[in-house]
Amino acid sequence: MDRSGKEQLVSSLRQDLAKSTLVIVAQQTGLTVAQVSDLRRQMREAGAQYKVAKNTLARLAIAGTENEPMTSFLSGPTALAYSKDPVAAAKVTINFANTNDKFKVVGGTLDGRLLSAKDIETLSKLPSLDQLRAKIIGTLSTPAARVVGVLQAPAGQLARVFSAYGNKV
Fold first, then answer.
1. pTM here?
2. Are 102 and 29 in contact (CB under 8 A)?
3. What integer pLDDT is reported at residue 93 of this predicted model?
4. Percent share of the chain, pLDDT over 90
5. Which of 141, 130, 106 shows the shortest CA–CA distance to 26?
6. Shortest CA distance to 78 belongs to which of 154, 26, 130?
7. ∠ CA 22-89-132, rounded to 5°
8. Which residue among 3, 31, 98, 142 is buried most deeply as judged by most CB within 10 Å?
9. R_g of the chain, CA atoms, integer Å
């Protein structure tokens, strides 16, 4: 890759990481092309991205950003997984690491705060942002549904009384 290609890669990576809430550094040694393709597919489905980059280029991309503390994790064959949703990339990477011995989560950052591999594993067990929103909506709509049910109950009872009276006559 020539110098302009590297500059473009660094610029693109910097922009992607700046938009992301969670950035995970993982080591991948000996993964097949099919396994990496499968991981990328899972990341896309979860709304995350997965990119393999040289450590020197990754260091240049995170230099001067809130992700700079994770520079210490960039050694060996590394890859970056990142997403806007703080749980999406964590779930996919931890699930993939649990099923594949050649893939290991090293650490990462969450809004500039350094995370260990154990922190990322804990984060992966949390519900996603969409699941939390659904729970909140469900919690808010339950009392309203109960009020409607209580208000409709007397009308239903009255209709049953009239029906019973009509069947008697």
1. 0.73
2. yes
3. 93
4. 22
5. 106
6. 26
7. 85
8. 31
9. 25
Cα angle: 102, vertex 81, 38; to 5 degrees: 55
Beta-carbon-side half-sphere exposure of residue 77 (alpha carbons within 13 Å):
7
Structure tokens at 102: 């050649």
Beta strands in the chain (DSSP E): 22-28, 48-52, 78-83, 103-110, 113-116
What are the tens digits of pLDDT across the range 23-43? Answer: 999 998 888 899 999 999 999
- Say whether 77 sits in a helix, a strand or coil: coil
Please check whether residue 63 is in contact with residue 17, taking contact to mean a CB–CB distance below 8 angstroms.
no
Of all residues in the chain, what percent carry a pLDDT higher than 70? 88
How far is residue 52 CA from its own chain's centroid? Answer: 18
Distance CA 74, CA 87 (A): 22
Summarised one tens digit per residue, pLDDT across range 43-99 is 999 889 999 888 888 888 888 888 888 888 888 888 999 988 888 889 999 999 999
**What is the residue whose two structure tokens read 């990576």?**
13
Give CA–CA dist 62/100, Å, rounded: 28
